[in-house]
Amino acid sequence: MKNHQIRAFTQVAESGSIRAAARALFLSQSALTKSLRELEEDVGAELLVRSYRGIEFTPAGKVLLSHTRLALSMLDKAREEVRLIRGGSGARVAVAMSPLVSIKALPEVWKTFEQLAPGVQLALSEGFLSSLIPALLEGRLDFALAIADPTDLPYELVFKPLMDVIALPAGRQGHPLAKAKTWDELRDATWVLNYSAGSQSETLVSWLRGQGLAEPRKMVNCTSSTLMSELMRRTDVLGFCPEILLNDKIYGAGLQRLHVEPLPPPMALGLVQLRGVPLSSAAKPLATLFMKYFRKT
């Protein structure tokens, strides 16, 4: 398996067709096709097929693609590390985080990191755990900060817990259900929840079911913290929010906790990275700053 074969194969996935991939790599289509054929011979399996819908990856091709993306990302990071050792510049760090981290920790951490490493190019993205895992596994992220149950993560990822996060049912100030004390009183309310795999909302519903308590009958599935908070502020929709955000003067404005009992156990917020892959010299200081922030919180 050679470098040019791996790059050709991966570029086909990025470009969506052999023609576009050949153009991106400044190769002829015949040269690119030859590299793909040689790669298939090397691994002993058909990796992609052409159809009227374009290029489609076989099951073997999909498995190999996740590994080639990671391999190319690691090689790029290695080149970058060598360049930095030789006095070069332009180090890049890609980090994703849950909304809680972006709201509470990022401003303070970013100010400090800018002073420590002004030449580093930061690529920041926000998302919940389910959307971060593929990017981590393919090496597109140096690390992520997310709320998770470590037992639900793929073996390839390691989770370093930073703090426990308590989440609470909440609604707008003056909500008709503001005085509710039991989950049964909230049964008929409409909820806006991030119901993706491993989320606090999914854990909430599973916990309610396990406790024999009333589950939400109507839910709006939402993966945007901004959309969720605005629906909660401007309508009678209820949400399930980290307590630390409800206590934030800006995010929590116009929202109030509902004093419903009992509550599910907290979940852990932690740093997630590839197992066995050390952070780069540019990413490690940033990860350290985030860890220090939450351990003092």
CATH topology of the largest domain, which one? D-Maltodextrin-Binding Protein, domain 2
* Structural class computed from helices and strand pairing: alpha/beta
- The CATH homologous superfamily name of the largest domain equals Periplasmic binding protein-like II
Order of helices and strands: HHHEEHEHHEHEEEEHEHEHEEH
What proportion of the residues form beta strands (DSSP E)?
15-25%
Helical proportion?
Answer: 40-55%
Number of strands: 12
Rg, Å, rounded: 23 Å
Low-confidence stretches: none
- Average pLDDT confidence is 89
How is this structure best described in words?
The chain is an alpha/beta fold and 297 residues long. It has three domains: 3-81, Winged helix-like DNA-binding domain superfamily/Winged helix DNA-binding domain (Arc Repressor Mutant, subunit A, Orthogonal Bundle), CATH 1.10.10.10; 91-160 and 272-296, D-Maltodextrin-Binding Protein, domain 2, CATH 3.40.190; 167-265, 3-Layer(aba) Sandwich (D-Maltodextrin-Binding Protein, domain 2), CATH 3.40.190.10. It is 43% helix and 22% strand. The chain has helices at residues 3-15, 18-24, 29-43, 59-85, 99-104, 106-116, 129-137, 200-211, 225-234, 243-246, 283-296, and strands at residues 48-51, 54-57, 92-97, 121-126, 143-148, 157-165, 167-172, 190-193, 218-221, 239-242, 255-257, 267-274. Strands 4-3-5-12-6 form a five-stranded mixed beta sheet, with helices on both faces. Helix 1 packs across helix 2. The termini are far apart. The mean pLDDT is 89.
